[in-house]
Task: inverse folding
């Protein structure tokens, strides 16, 4: 059984640019959640996708957007990057909305 | 709104000894789940243990056990026979359970406790 994978591993972008992060969910999982983890902090919930529909959103601006595809993989898009967007972005998948979430290795985004 | 507090930023323990990590949370919900996650330096978040609020029995997973005190809103993690591989950040997390009309399974994390296991 393949676990949750994320790409790329690391990314460096310039302020104002746009970025797309990708996540492949674990086999049999239909729910994907995205989290932002700033250095030295716990992860903060960005949004969740359940069967291709957004199923909740945390306190993040609209320039953070996402998609979930029919195979339940997902993308996180961030427009107009700001320095404070520098963080580890974690994707987690689960069998359903209220089941335990299994995390990918994360994408380290640096905005300069 | 729910909050999770981990009051111990750092802890250390000798190999083979027992250590307890503290977590308190604030919620007005009656049905919820609590989790402990481990994040080693390699950074992948790993689920350690899960507790359902409606269950009075404390969850255990091999060397890991919890002390769940619902009235006190406390959820501590005990690691027995500590091993060098237990060195990691440990995060306590809360998830609200199903409400009628829909649910959102987002995790609310504490700030973490950095555990160092010394040989």
Result:
């Amino acid at each position: 059984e393949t676990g949750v994978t994320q790409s790329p591993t690391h990314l460096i972008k310039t302020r104002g640019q746009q970025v797309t992060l990708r996540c492949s969910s674990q086999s049999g999982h239909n729910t994907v959640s995205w989290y932002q983890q700033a250095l030295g902090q716990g992860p903060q919930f960005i949004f969740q996708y359940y069967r291709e529909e957004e199923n909740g959103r945390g306190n993040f601006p609209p320039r953070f957007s996402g998609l979930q595809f029919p195979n339940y993989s997902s993308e996180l898009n961030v427009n107009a990057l700001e320095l404070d967007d520098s963080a580890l972005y974690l994707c987690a998948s689960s069998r359903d909305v209220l089941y335990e979430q299994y995390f990918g290795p994360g994408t380290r985004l640096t905005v300069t | 709104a729910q909050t999770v507090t981990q009051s111990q930023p750092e802890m250390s323990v000798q190999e083979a000894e027992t250590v307890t990590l503290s977590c308190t949370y604030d919620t007005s919900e009656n049905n919820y789940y609590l989790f402990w996650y481990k994040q080693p330096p390699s950074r992948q978040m790993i689920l350690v243990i899960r507790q359902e609020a409606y269950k009075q029995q404390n969850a255990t997973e091999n060397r890991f056990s919890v002390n769940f005190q619902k009235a006190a809103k406390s959820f501590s993690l005990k690691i027995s026979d500590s091993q060098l591989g237990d060195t990691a950040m440990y995060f306590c997390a809360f998830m609200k359970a199903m409400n009628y009309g829909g649910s959102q399974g987002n995790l609310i994390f504490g700030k973490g406790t950095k555990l160092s296991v010394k040989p």
Observations:
- Chain B touches chain A at residues 4, 33, 35, 37, 42-47, 50, 91, 93, 95, 97-98, 103-112 (CB under 8 Å).
- The radius of gyration of chain B is 14 Å.
- The longest strand of chain B covers residues 88-96.
